[in-house]
Amino acid sequence: MEKARNQSALSCLHSFEMRALGFQSDDPEELKKKERLHRLKCRTLSLRMQRNKLKAQIQMIKETKAALDEGFSPDSNGGENRAKCSQLILPLLMARHTELKDMLKAHHLIGGYDLVEVDGGRRVCLSLSTAYEDTCLDTYHLELDLTRGVRIHRHDIPPCIPLTSLAQENLQTDLPAFLNTLRQHVSALASRLHQVKLIKERLKTVRVMETNSLCSVLVLMCKITGDEDTAILFSLLYRDPIRALPTQVTLESNDKSLPDEPQWKETKSLFLELPPHQALLVLKNKGKIM
Fold first, then answer.
1. Is the pLDDT of residue 16 over 70?
2. H-type alpha helices, 112-233
3. 82 exposed, middle or buried (CB, 10 Å; 0-12, 13-18, 19+)?
4. CA-CA distance, 224 to 83, in Å (whole number)?
5. Residue 14, pLDDT above cutoff 70
6. How confident is the model at residue 24, as a pLDDT?
7. What's residue 263's pLDDT?
8. What residues pair up with 213 in beta bridges, in sequence order?
9. Any residues with CB less than 8 A from the CB of 56 and at least 6 apart, and which?
10. How far is CA 198 from CA 155, 228, 243, in A?
11. CA separation for the pair 200, 209 (Å, rounded)
């Protein structure tokens, strides 16, 4: 009895609520349709509000990410921007930091980089080791700041390496590609410098007449066997900065006809295929140079 009385009271309350919402019909079926329509409208309104909220959050994330990529600093912008981005800066920085650490560690495993975190993980130090013919050569260091995008904090890369232009190309967009390209440059430079050192150590009769800091130009003077008065100059040009072999070879001599002789013309291809110290050793073993 009590249960029936409660159900009747609830039914009356529901009827009053429907009428308050504008459902004046006494037909139960009509009321059900209008009630269902009302619920669908409420659900639609709720979903639209959630959609608009998500759109606003996505737009804020895009703007904050773009600001971070451009070197955004919360302290340097107005109060409105600080309030707008304050809730997103830390998560974005943490996500960027984690992503970069994962990329750097993975590249360390496949590329042989020595990676060390400094300043509580805000920066990382990389070591780029170089080698030539199983000989360990110079090691270069690069410190990256991860707090505002990716920036080069300090380094000991030789000035002749175009570090700034390489960083502008893909430091922000493709860090592994940047590190790979940089390593190719420093490895090729170390190899060319080591080749000059080997020439001076192993071929005492060969004189290094000219070179530069990038070792993109190398001029060598050799004496012809059996004729000490005749010398020949090999001018090697390295147009590709990430290669250890020359891309162009020219011959000159005080004997003007000598560079045109077939046996000396063949030496051009020899220098294009072998490192200069090895090409010179081949010529010496064949008795062409002293």
1. no
2. 163-170, 175-202
3. middle
4. 78
5. no
6. 54
7. 83
8. none
9. none
10. 28, 23, 17
11. 11
Single out the residue of 144, 113, 108, 147 nearest to residue 127, CA to CA. 113
- Backbone torsions φ then ψ of 101, nearest 5 degrees: -65, -40
Strand partners, 142: 126, 155
Mean pLDDT of 120-130: 85
Q: Residue 188: pLDDT band by 50, 70, 90 thresholds?
A: very high
The pLDDT mean for the chain works out to: 81
- Sheet containing 151-155, strands listed edge to edge, beginning at the edge strand earlier in sequence: 114-118, 123-132, 135-145, 151-155
Left (φ > 0), alpha (ψ -120 to 50) or beta: where does 24 sit?
alpha
27-58 confidence digits (pLDDT tens) = 667 777 877 888 888 888 888 898 888 888 77
Tracing tokens 């780029």 back to the chain, one arrives at: 128
Residue 165 is encoded by which pair of tokens? 């232009």
Q: Taking the CA atoms of the chain, what radius of gyration do you get in angstroms?
A: 37
Q: CA–CA separation, 198 vs 194, rounded Å?
A: 6
At which residue do the structure tokens 């010398």 appear? 231
- Whether the pLDDT of residue 74 is over 70: the answer is no
As a whole number, mean pLDDT of residues 67-86 equals 57
Q: How far is CA 156 from CA 82, 115, 119, 140, 143, in A?
A: 36, 16, 19, 6, 9
Q: If you count them, how many residues does the chain have?
A: 290
Cβ burial, residue 188 (10 Å; 0-12/13-18/19+): buried
Whole-number Å distance between alpha carbons of 161 and 165: 9
Tokens of 31: 């009321």
Dihedral of alpha carbons 195, 201, 206, 208, sign: positive
Tokens of residue 217, six digits: 């130009």
Contact of 220 with 208, CB cutoff 8 Å: yes
What is the C-alpha to C-alpha distance for residues 139 and 165, in angstroms, rounded to an integer? 21
